[in-house]
């Protein structure tokens, strides 16, 4: 008997279980992006492979989770059952069992999630305001004399800082400005300590430090008032807060961020060993320079000694004494010769004077002077007579052409107010003032009428 085949069976697309789970896995991955899920850890398992398996639950439901070793090895805390956490995960399906699960990439305590979001919001706002700008950072002093430390007086941070400073450069003076570094009032305490250090004004640099802790423990260093007080500080501020992976708002606002309190102390303190080596090298250079200088001075001294020996004052005095004797002898000879020549010259002049006595010459000159005086008197008398005759002739000629003579005959000289001589009636107008000069005196007149 032949088998009857149902024609509808040939059109069915039959899924295997593995195919079904695989496609459901793809569907879940495509439908849900990576998302944040908050819940309580339960059934935590940590096998030797390093992967973690656990469930996240709330009051009504739970979901399986897997966090592979490459994601959990850098986690900053140790999860345990009952811990409320916030995870960033990809929705997936475990194909062999068909279990719906979350593949966790990031995990943090649930309280830290809100704090981190607040941290990022404040960081972006202050950065946009320019509070973290590099141009506002102050330069750290290369050789500080006094360092201020702002931290808890009983914490491990102050011990680490003091240990490093003692090891690196014990001569540095350290001033502690104690304050609370954890708790609700810690932010205000840190601000007050920064203000106190600035009002004190004796430190070259300030260290704001604290040991490690959770995000909540470090939260006072993420407060806005602390960041603004750091920027308002007149003294450079170096932070060393928590561990190397911990960053706070104070780190961004500070002039320099160190990963730990110990590193902050190393940043601001000179290395004593390096300083010692530098001093040793400088001392060696100074010694070499001194030896070279002393060598030059010794050579110069030896040269001067030889020169002094060659030009010793006693030798020069001896030479000068001999020269002086020679000059003295020459002076005596010259003096004797001079006096002898002067005496001979005097005798010649005396003989000439005796042959020609001055009385005779004086008599001759006196007679000549009398003759010249008589001739001078005669010449002056002749010249005066000629001058009188010429003067009389010129006086008569001048009187003949003088305007004063004309005035004596009744004529007058008329001038206008400017002193111009008038020669015609049309040079003035009625009412003008004129001056009339007569032979004896003047008249001030006013013109009444003009005519030809």
UniProtKB/TrEMBL annotation:
GO terms for cellular component: cytoplasm; exodeoxyribonuclease VII complex. Its main location: cytoplasm. The keyword Nuclease applies. InterPro entries: Exonuc_VII_L, Exonuc_VII_lsu_C, OB-fold_nuc-bd_dom. GO terms for molecular function: exodeoxyribonuclease VII activity; nucleic acid binding. Its EC number is 3.1.11.6. GO terms for biological process: DNA catabolic process. It is found in: Cytoplasm. Residues 131-445 form the Exonuclease VII large subunit C-terminal domain. The keyword Lipid metabolism does not apply. It is an enzyme of class 3 (hydrolase). Pfam families: Exonuc_VII_L, tRNA_anti_2. Keywords: Coiled coil, Cytoplasm, Exonuclease, Hydrolase, Nuclease. Residues 317-344 form a coiled coil. It catalyses: Exonucleolytic cleavage in either 5'- to 3'- or 3'- to 5'-direction to yield nucleoside 5'-phosphates. Residues 15-108 form the OB-fold nucleic acid binding domain. Heterooligomer composed of large and small subunits. HAMAP family: Exonuc_7_L. Bidirectionally degrades single-stranded DNA into large acid-insoluble oligonucleotides, which are then degraded further into small acid-soluble oligonucleotides. Belongs to the XseA family. PANTHER family: EXODEOXYRIBONUCLEASE 7 LARGE SUBUNIT. This is Exodeoxyribonuclease 7 large subunit. The gene is xseA.
């Amino acid at each position: 008997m032949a088998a009857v085949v149902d024609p509808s069976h040939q059109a069915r697309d039959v899924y295997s279980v593995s195919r079904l789970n695989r496609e459901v896995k793809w569907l879940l991955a495509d439908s849900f992006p990576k998302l944040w899920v908050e819940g309580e850890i339960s059934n935590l398992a940590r096998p030797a492979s390093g992967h973690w398996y656990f469930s996240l639950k709330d009051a009504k439901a739970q979901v399986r989770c897997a966090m592979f070793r490459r994601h959990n090895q850098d986690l900053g805390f140790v999860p345990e059952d009952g811990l409320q956490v916030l995870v960033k995960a990809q929705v997936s399906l475990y194909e062999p069992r068909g279990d719906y699960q979350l593949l966790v990439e990031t995990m943090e305590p649930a309280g830290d999630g809100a704090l981190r979001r607040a941290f990022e919001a404040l960081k972006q706002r202050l950065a946009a305001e320019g509070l973290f700008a590099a141009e506002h950072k102050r330069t750290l002093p290369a050789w500080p004399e006094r360092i201020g430390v702002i931290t808890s007086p009983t914490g491990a941070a102050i011990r680490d800082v003091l240990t490093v400073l003692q090891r690196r450069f014990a001569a540095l003076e350290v001033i502690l400005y104690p304050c609370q570094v954890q708790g609700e009032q810690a932010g205000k305490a840190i601000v007050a300590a920064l203000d106190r250090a600035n009002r004190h004004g004796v430190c070259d640099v300030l260290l704001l430090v604290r040991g490690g802790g959770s995000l909540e423990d470090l939260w006072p260093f993420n407060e806005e008032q602390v960041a603004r007080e750091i920027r308002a500080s007149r003294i450079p501020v170096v932070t060393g807060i928590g561990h190397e992976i911990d960053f706070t708002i104070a780190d961004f606002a500070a002039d320099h961020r160190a990963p730990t309190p110990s590193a902050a102390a190393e940043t601001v303190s000179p290395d004593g060993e390096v300083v010692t080596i530098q001093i040793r090298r400088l001392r060696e250079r100074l010694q070499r320079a001194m030896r070279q200088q002393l060598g030059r001075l010794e050579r110069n001294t030896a040269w001067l000694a030889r020169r002094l020996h060659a030009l010793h004052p006693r030798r020069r005095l001896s030479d000068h004494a001999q020269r002086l004797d020679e000059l003295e002898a020459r002076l005596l000879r010259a003096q004797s010769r001079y006096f002898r020549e002067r005496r001979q010259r005097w005798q010649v002049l005396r003989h000439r004077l005796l042959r020609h006595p001055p009385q005779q010459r004086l008599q001759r000159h006196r007679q000549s002077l009398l003759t010249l005086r008589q001739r001078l008197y005669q010449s002056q008398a002749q010249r005066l007579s000629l001058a009188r005759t010429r003067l009389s002739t010129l006086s008569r000629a001048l009187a003949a052409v003088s305007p004063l003579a004309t005035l004596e005959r009744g004529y007058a000289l008329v001038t206008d107010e400017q002193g111009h001589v008038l020669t015609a009636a049309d040079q003035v107008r009625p009412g003008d003032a004129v001056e009339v000069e007569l032979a004896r005196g003047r008249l001030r007149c006013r013109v009444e009428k003009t005519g030809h």
